[in-house]
Amino acid sequence: MNLEKAAELSHAEWREMAAKLKQSAETRLFIGGQFVDAIDGGTFDNICPVDGSVINKCAAGKKADIDKAVEIAKRSFKSGEWSRMAPRNRMAVMYKWAGLIGENAAELALMDTIDMGKPISDMLKADIPMCINTVEYFAECIDKVTGSVTATEYDVMSTVLREPIGVVGCISPWNYPLLMALWKIVPSLAAGNSTILKPAEQSPLSCYRVAALFVEAGGPPGALQVINGLGEQAGQALARHMDVSKISFTGSTEVGKLIHAYSGESNMKKVSLECGGKGPQVFCEDLEGELLDRAVTTAINGIFFNMGEVCSAGSRLIVHAKIYDEFVAKFIEKGKDAYICGDPLDPAVNLGPLVDHQSQARVLGMIDKAKSEGGRILFGGAAPANGLEKGAYVIPTMITGVKSNDYVAQNEVFGPVVSVIKVESDDEAIEVANNSVYGLQGSVWTDNYRRAMRYVREIECGTFLVNAFEEGDMTQPFGGYKQSGNAKDKCFESLLSYMNTKAAWFRLN
Ligand code: NAD
User: Fold this and answer.
1) Is beta strand 34-36 parallel, antiparallel or unpaired with respect to 29-31?
2) Three-state DSSP class for 274?
3) What are the residue ranges spanned by the domains of the chain?
4) What's the CA-to-centroid distance between 68 and ligand 1, angstroms?
5) What Cα–Cα distance (Å) separates residue 140 from each residue in 47, 328, 351, 433, 487?
6) Catalytic residues
């Protein structure tokens, strides 16, 4: 069912579809174009964050399954069935794939909602359109890749060629299960690599389905395989494999550091990392009227959308003392009831549970720690009580009186929790914004473009917005400075990062 029809479904219809999908969704490993059990027959429970029930049992891939997939990927790569396919033909497969994702939009959206509790309306409005856009964008890029001829003496021709790398491993997180996986596997495939995805164990369903759709679109079975499993098992085996030439990882900074180490301890494979964030948003003293209102509304969505489970969430609001009281009052007025917890299958609900009960306990623990360090909870700060007790829910939470070095200001909460820090000057705001090991996304709100430009230049992060937040399109490089990572997703540069450059020197005389 496509997006248009899906947008008309009622809560009852989604519930009915979800009940069926839990029975029918494929949970086995996708190897060589077939769904198969793990070699040792191992499985683990896929838990529903809405009520803690078991959704289904997922095959637990391990080293032996990764080895099997890598062998198939190597053979596929060497055969040239995908790696040497004419660019226009590769583009045709990718466009067909994008079309199939559109035709199966409702099912794919439902899979992510079932797995990790994301509101179905967010899947339809945000994730699925962006997934389609990702495949179309990189399809479009395929025959735009060029090499070059360098300046040399007359009797030499020196060319630089771009080639696919070989077998590429991608490891993805659960917060945008399908979209984050596609930001990795699509440019990798567009570049001609044989690609193996290890999705987050909490949310594999849509990744399996999308891989099957790739084969249905005409992609060779050896070009895209999906092996779910625990990170320390399947993920580690992929990242340590001697025949995997690149690992592209999105997830926590902690695991990102391990991935780097695995590369060094194995075959020095290329490593692309997209990791955590602690997004600062600065609100300057000149804000007033409509711009202040828009700043507040955007800040509310910038932290509470997707339950705050967003790497680039604006979790630190750095507010000038001159507008502080007005800003906080408006944030409470507009933000307190803007996101209401409920069943994510209800199209009217905009806040689902966190991904699991461990996350809920961690987030509530961080709120307690903030209180013990002098933070004041202005709203939220707890799990809801209105019949949602079994779910991993946390109510949107605003904490003021936070200091720049407090635990809650330094660590990624990955939940609907915003910290507000008061500052007295631009100098102090910049110092606070940069007082973080992370550097993913930040913003400044001001009516003064000279001031804005200073922030653009001085704040250490990969993406910076002026009078906006969480905007962008596929042309924009997305990735972090500092411990937020070392790579860029989206954008043409991302596609090139899945290719090797080869210098070819022709002696002509
Ligand atoms: P995570 O690091 O726990 O897991 C990410 C992936 O790594 C999962 O597939 C997991 O199974 C795998 N993994 C875990 N341990 C591993 C190991 N030892 N070896 C190999 N693989 C292993 O992260 P998460 O909880 O799934 O996702 C949340 C994190 O992702 C947050 O920190 C968030 O900021 C980050 N994130 C970053 C971006 C970005 O673009 N920068 C985007 C989305 C999420």
Assistant:
1) antiparallel
2) strand
3) 3-275+485-502, 280-474
4) 24
5) 38, 45, 35, 37, 21
6) 274, 311
3-275+485-502: what fold?
Answer: Aldehyde Dehydrogenase; Chain A, domain 1 (3.40.605)
CATH architecture of the domain formed by 280-474: 3-Layer(aba) Sandwich (3.40)
Tell me the best of 127, 134, 252, 490 to mutate to test the pocket of ligand 1, counting ligand atoms within 8 Å of each CB and taking the most.
Answer: 252
- Both structure tokens of 464: 């910076």
Q: Reduced to 3 states, what is the DSSP secondary structure of residue 218?
A: coil
Tokens standing for 298?
């955007």
The rounded radius of gyration (Å) of the Cα atoms in the chain is 23
Question: Are residues 150 and 101 in contact, defined by beta-carbon separation less than 8 angstroms?
Answer: no
> What pLDDT does residue 385 have?
87
Q: How far is the CA of 183 from the centre of ligand 1 (A)?
A: 14
Tell me: the pLDDT tens digits for 244-271? 999 999 999 999 999 999 999 999 999 9
For 8, 76, 153, 170, 270, the CA distances from 192, given in Å and listed in that order, are 38, 11, 33, 14, 16
- Pocket around ligand 1: residues whose beta carbon is below 6 Å from it? 171-175, 180, 198, 200-201, 231-232, 235-236, 239, 250-252, 255, 258, 274-277, 311, 412, 414, 440, 480, 484-485, 489
The residues that bridge with 463 in the sheet, in sequence order, are 441
195 phi and psi, to 5 degrees?
Answer: -120, 135
- pLDDT, tens only, 381-401: 999 988 899 999 999 999 999
> Mean pLDDT over residues 164-190, rounded?
98
